[in-house]
């Protein structure tokens, strides 16, 4: 109903239903069916959802891929790994995909194979780059094979590292993990600190001497 | 032009002083069909809805626009804070993640305040 159109006069109580129908029709035909205040309510709801999500993340609702709080059990990865080869395995848990790579110069590196962008599988591509690259095909994410840092694409964080050792017989073992962007010393001290105080002391971890002394007494 | 040359003002009445302009929209614009411009067949009347142009305090509309713009800006900041929270948590910096979560909660309280302010504004 426009402003210049006068409302039809009600002639009796029997027209009450028609009035209601007319009012409903007017409401439907109004310019904005969703008011700005409705939008404000929707925005407030979204904002509340984001706040709840943030609290959930901070309290640990998300799984940290390739991470363990304590020292994980050592795991044999391969009997032998030739230069340019890679092997996929699970470490530290059965759900944590990981990747060990022998670079062309003989260096041995290990990373979580879960992309830090949207958790797709990361692949070793020897044919890409100078040293080869760790490549996520989902969104063209690329990680440096030596450091695990992101070099291209959307991944926001480096790949969590896995520490590998090689025995004299050539077998490769996974021994510990580091979180995304965590330094090797910090990661090893965090995991060896309580379970292997001798190793922590050799690494020069803070508080390692005190822990050893208290065990002796 | 001097004031003496102007015709006398008509008495004030809602709408136009010319009766032909105060006819219903349907009579003034017979080309407009009941559902012109709308895909929704329930809509019978086109053009300005009831209440259009009858804003008592137009400045309140600007305030509501500003509140909506502020709330949207805060939500964009919250999206940024959530990415920070996830990144810090994944890197093991739990303390920083909690600070970011606190920022998210404060931002929500700001948006809530903007929503609760002047609840009659539409």
TrEMBL record, chain A:
Region (Disordered): 197-217
GO CC aspect terms: membrane
A Pfam family it matches: Rieske
SUPFAM superfamilies recorded: ISP domain
Domain Rieske: 73-174
Keyword vocabulary terms for this entry: 2Fe-2S, Disulfide bond, Iron, Iron-sulfur, Metal-binding
Protein name from the UniProt record: Cytochrome bc1 complex Rieske iron-sulfur subunit
An example Gene Ontology molecular-function term: metal ion binding
Described function: Iron-sulfur subunit of the cytochrome bc1 complex, an essential component of the respiratory electron transport chain required for ATP synthesis. The bc1 complex catalyzes the oxidation of menaquinol and the reduction of cytochrome c in the respiratory chain. The bc1 complex operates through a Q-cycle mechanism that couples electron transfer to generation of the proton gradient that drives ATP synthesis.
Matching InterPro entries: Rieske_2Fe-2S, Rieske_2Fe-2S_sf, Rieske_Fe-S_prot, Rieske_Fe-S_prot_C
PANTHER family, A to Z: CYTOCHROME B-C1 COMPLEX SUBUNIT RIESKE, MITOCHONDRIAL
Cofactor requirement: [2Fe-2S] cluster
Keyword Iron-sulfur: yes
TrEMBL record, chain B:
Source domain of life: Bacteria
Natural source organism: Streptomyces roseus
Transmembrane segments: 68-86, 98-117
Name by which UniProt lists this protein: Uncharacterized protein
Keywords of this entry: Membrane, Transmembrane, Transmembrane helix
Region annotated Disordered, chain positions: 1-60
């Amino acid at each position: 109903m426009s402003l210049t159109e006068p409302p039809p006069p009600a002639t009796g109580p029997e027209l009450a239903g028609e009035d209601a129908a007319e009012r409903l029709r007017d409401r439907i035909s109004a310019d904005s069916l969703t008011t700005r205040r409705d939008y404000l309510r929707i925005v407030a709801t979204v904002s509340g959802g984001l706040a709840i999500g943030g609290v959930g993340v901070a309290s640990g609702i998300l799984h940290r891929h390739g991470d363990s709080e304590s020292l994980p059990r050592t795991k044999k990865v391969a009997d032998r790994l030739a230069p340019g080869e890679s092997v996929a395995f699970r470490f530290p848990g059965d759900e944590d995909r990981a990747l060990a790579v022998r670079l062309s110069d003989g260096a041995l590196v290990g990373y979580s194979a879960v992309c830090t962008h949207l958790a797709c599988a990361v692949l070793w591509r020897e044919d890409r780059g100078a040293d080869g690259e760790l490549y996520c095909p989902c969104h063209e994410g690329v990680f440096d094979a030596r450091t695990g840092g992101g070099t291209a694409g959307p991944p926001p964080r480096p790949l969590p590292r896995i520490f590998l050792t090689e025995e004299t017989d050539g077998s490769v073992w996974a021994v510990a993990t580091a979180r995304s962007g965590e330094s090797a010393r910090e990661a090893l001290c965090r995991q060896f600190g309580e379970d292997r105080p001798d190793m922590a002391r050799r690494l020069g971890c803070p508080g390692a001497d005190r822990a050893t002394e208290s065990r002796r007494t | 032009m001097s004031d003496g040359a102007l015709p006398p003002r008509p008495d004030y009445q809602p709408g136009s002083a010319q009766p032909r302009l105060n006819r219903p929209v349907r009579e003034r614009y017979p080309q407009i069909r009941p559902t012109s411009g709308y895909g929704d067949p329930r809509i019978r009347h086109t053009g300005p809805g009831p209440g259009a142009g009858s804003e008592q305090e137009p400045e309140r509309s600007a305030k509501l626009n500003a509140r909506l713009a502020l709330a949207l800006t805060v939500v964009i900041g919250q999206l940024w804070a959530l990415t920070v929270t996830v990144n810090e948590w994944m890197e093991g910096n739990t303390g920083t993640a909690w600070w970011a979560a606190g920022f998210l909660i404060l931002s929500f309280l700001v948006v809530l305040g903007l929503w609760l302010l002047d609840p009659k504004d539409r």
